[in-house]
UniProtKB/TrEMBL annotation:
<dbReference type="Pfam" id="PF01636">
    <property type="entry name" value="APH"/>
</dbReference>
<dbReference type="InterPro" id="IPR002575">
    <property type="entry name" value="Aminoglycoside_PTrfase"/>
</dbReference>
<feature type="domain" description="Aminoglycoside phosphotransferase">
    <location>
        <begin position="34"/>
        <end position="290"/>
    </location>
</feature>
<keyword id="KW-0067">ATP-binding</keyword>
<dbReference type="GO" id="GO:0046522">
    <property type="term" value="F:S-methyl-5-thioribose kinase activity"/>
</dbReference>
<protein>
    <recommendedName>
        <fullName>S-methyl-5-thioribose kinase</fullName>
        <ecNumber>2.7.1.100</ecNumber>
    </recommendedName>
</protein>
<comment type="similarity">
    <text>Belongs to the methylthioribose kinase family.</text>
</comment>
<dbReference type="InterPro" id="IPR009212">
    <property type="entry name" value="Methylthioribose_kinase"/>
</dbReference>
<keyword id="KW-0808">Transferase</keyword>
<dbReference type="GO" id="GO:0009086">
    <property type="term" value="P:methionine biosynthetic process"/>
</dbReference>
<keyword id="KW-0418">Kinase</keyword>
<keyword id="KW-0547">Nucleotide-binding</keyword>
<comment type="subunit">
    <text>Homodimer.</text>
</comment>
<dbReference type="GO" id="GO:0005524">
    <property type="term" value="F:ATP binding"/>
</dbReference>
<dbReference type="InterPro" id="IPR011009">
    <property type="entry name" value="Kinase-like_dom_sf"/>
</dbReference>
Amino acid sequence: MSDSYEFLTAHNIPSYLASHTEISTIVDHNAITEVKEVGDGNLNLVFIVTDKHGKGIVLKQALPYVRLVGPSWPMSPDRARIEYETNVIHAQSAKQFVPEIYFYDSERYIIAMEDLSDHKVWRTSLNLGEQNHGAAKSIGEYVARVLFATSIFGAGADAHYKGIARAINPELCLITENLVFTEPYFPADRNSYLPENEIDAKAIIEDSRMALEMGELKYKFMTCAEALLHGDLHSGSVMVKSDAKGNEISTRAFDSEFSFYGPIGFDLGACFANFYIALARATALRRKDHADFIAGLPGELWDSFEANFRALWPTRVDKRVFSDVLLEKLLSQWKFDAIGYAAAKMTRRIVGLAKTSDIETLEPAERIGAARGVLRSAQMAIRERHINTDLNSLTLKVRKIIDEVRTGEGN
């Protein structure tokens, strides 16, 4: 790995655009009106460049370290290649749900892609109390389409095995393995929380059942190469565009640099977790109507995923032993897994590194209860899935826990 390549800046971007014919026509490098750095994520530089004609482009550059921490945490910028290739592959089966990619610079690890400034990050929209009708359904379809297409069912054996070899992503998988499945369940330097939530973090660490199930989930994450996952699918990696009434115009999934071949339930569970975190925020802010809306999102996303996967099933490459009976078992297993992965993600986002603005932007008095509600819901969900995987029922129980914590009944 070389860390000697030139980093993008507002100053050198015009000359960079001019020197690459693949993107020089997307925006006018001689008439740039704004270069805005929007890389508020944990890893990369991200610039939105616009010209006087109203055209725009996004340039995303992988740094040779974790941006959230700095050069003390080195990381291969080759993750940009993985994101680029995953986006191209996912576009083959779900083009309407991913940004258009114009160019990839393999020497400087830069992806040039469609400007989605007319969209809004879904997490931001949810934080503001907005309702985006249809977005969860679209993400469910996106997950079904890309995971079927890259699974053994849609791709066939040869393409599937070659895809696994291409998409090996050890450094970013290791981040997930540590931050999601390990550190929240043991005293770790990177864990943090409000002093008032220490009792809740301690309850997680002392929950031996939770640790056991995280071990099982982590093992499956590390060994089960079912399909080419997005790998970090949550409300912060989805862009939404809605009309004045909140009805969907466009929904796009982006930031797939954590992509790898893994268990199908993982992407689904990551979405469920972020819906429940958003639910905790809405409850803390006493936004009942918005909480009602959010409570319907897990079921809406799953129903869309299941319906679309079922619709694709008849096109599977090998019908000899991959029967309809097998599909029923797989769907049941994926939902069971997804609820477990949701519990892992919920816990990580409260006590681990890289938290969410849903909770962190609340006032401390509200944040304490919201964080407690999310953690207790995770402990409930990891057990409940062994009894009942109905998402509407699970969401009712999550909501009850979050409500009771907010009112003091659950303290």
